[in-house]
Amino acid sequence: MAQHYSTPSAIQIVDFNLFYGQAFYDLNHEWISKYFVMEDADVKSLSDPQGYIINKGGHILMALFNGEPVGTCALLKDGEGVFELAKMAVAPKMQGMKIGKMLGEAAIDWARRAGAHKVYLVSNRRLQTALNLYERLGFVEVPLPASIYERADIKMELELQPAK
């Protein structure tokens, strides 16, 4: 059953379904191509989110505005109780409306309810607005191990308290 997350505005955060597959691809392709180059790992996860993310225990959220997908983020399962926050994107025309914050909070809430004790992410220091958001969500920088993404130059983690 699809979960809906309450938000303080006209933005609705909903669980991914295959209807949103093209939007998931397009939203991410847009920002990745703007700043970087699409890597093999991007193509794999964006082309088959059901198989690459959801069927492996992960989750994807979509932000809708008047029913139109305007943002997304994914949680990739990476071991017992650990998820990677990834593929967060907001349509340029909707940036500055706190959609990234809403998606991040909903993703953290989902991970906590799924029994996670940690959520981490890898990013790039060029994406300062995103890094500021992650810090506001409680993520802290930790040493960066080898990553599947060449563009990654920072890792951040958030330790979670159990769901109440």
Written account of the structure:
The chain has 164 residues and is of the alpha+beta class. It has a domain at 4-115: Gcn5-related N-acetyltransferase (GNAT) (Aminopeptidase, 3-Layer(aba) Sandwich), CATH 3.40.630. The chain contains five helices and eight strands. The chain has helices at 21-35, 40-47, 49-52, 99-113, 128-136; strands at 4-5, 11-15, 59-65, 68-77, 82-90, 118-123, 140-142, 154-159. The chain has an eight-stranded mixed beta sheet. β5, α4 and β6 form a beta-alpha-beta unit. The longest helix is centred in the N-terminal third of the chain and has 15 residues, at 21-35. The chain is globular. It starts with a strand and ends in a 5-residue tail after the last strand. The model has no long low-confidence stretch (mean pLDDT 93). GO terms for molecular function: N-acetyltransferase activity. This is Acetyltransferase (GNAT) family protein.
Taking all residues together, what is the mean pLDDT?
Answer: 93
Rg (C-alpha, Å): 15 Å
The protein's oligomeric status is: single chain
Give the biggest beta sheet: 8 strands, mixed
Question: Helix/strand-derived class?
Answer: alpha+beta
Distance N to C terminus: 21 Å
Helix content: 25-40%
CATH topology (fold) name of the domain at 4-115: Aminopeptidase
CATH class of the domain at 4-115, please?
Alpha Beta
- The CATH homologous superfamily of the domain at 4-115 is named Gcn5-related N-acetyltransferase (GNAT)
Low-confidence stretches: none
Question: How many helix segments?
Answer: 5
